[in-house]
Amino acid sequence: MKIIDATDLVFGRAASVIAKMLLKGEEVTVINAEKFVLNGNPNYILEKFKTRRSWKNKANPERSPHYSRVPHLLVKRMIRGMLPRKTFTGRQAYRRLMVYTGNPENLQGQSLEDMKIKDKGKPHIYIYDLCKRLGWKDE
C-alpha cells in the first residue's frame, strides 16, 4: 500500500500518477487531500466548479452528476475521472483508492511515498479554499 501526502502537490499531475498506480494494481491512500493545489486563476476555477455543480438532467434530475463540497470526496471524484470506471479494471482500480482529509491516526508514523510534483504556479487555489467557497462547512 502506498501512502501519498498531498501537501502542496499540484493536483492534475499527482492525480495522473495516482491513476496509473491504481491501474497497475497498487492500493493507494491519499492523506491531507484538502492541501492539493489547483493552478490557475482562483475565480475562474471557482466559477467552473459552480457551473459543474449546477448541471441538471431535465428528464430525470436524480441522474444528474454530483460533485461534492467535501474535500476528500471531491478529490476522489476528480481522480475517478482519470480512470476507465465503466470497465472491470477501472472499477477495481477505483476500489483500491482511499482518500482522507487530514492524517488519520491509523496511518500516522507510516512511510510516505515521495512525489516530486510541488511546483505551484503564481495564481493557485487549495482544494480546502475551493470547498469553503463552494459552501462546505468545516467541522
Strand % is: 5-15%
Largest sheet: 3 strands, parallel
CATH superfamily: Ribosomal protein L13
- Cross-sheet strand order for the largest sheet: 1-2-4
Described by the principal axes of the CA atoms, the overall outline is globular
Q: SS-based structural class?
A: alpha/beta
The overall pLDDT, averaged over residues, is 90
CATH architecture: Alpha-Beta Complex
Order of SSEs? EHEEHHHEEH
- Distance between termini? 29 Å
Could you state the oligomeric state of the chains shown?
A: single chain
**Text of the CATH class:** Alpha Beta
Total number of strands: 5
Low-confidence runs (pLDDT<50, min 5 residues)? none
Radius of gyration: 15 Å
The total of helices stands at 5
Percent of residues in helices comes to 25-40%
Number of domains: 1
CATH topology: Ribosomal Protein L13p, Chain: A
Notable features of this structure?
139 residues; Ribosomal Protein L13p, Chain: A; alpha/beta; 5 strands; two-stranded antiparallel sheet; 5 helices
Structural commentary:
There is one protein chain. This protein has helices at residues 11-23, 42-54, 71-80, 88-95, 127-134; strands at 2-5, 28-31, 37-39, 97-99, 124-126. β1 (2-5), α1 and β2 form a beta-alpha-beta unit. It starts with a strand and ends in a 5-residue tail after the last helix. Helices cover 37% and strands 12% of the residues. Strands 1-2-4 form a three-stranded parallel beta sheet. The protein has a two-stranded antiparallel sheet with strand order 3-5. The longest helix has 13 residues, at 11-23. The chain has a single domain (2-134), classed as Ribosomal Protein L13p, Chain: A (Alpha-Beta Complex). It is globular. The mean pLDDT is 90. With 139 residues, the protein is of the alpha/beta class.
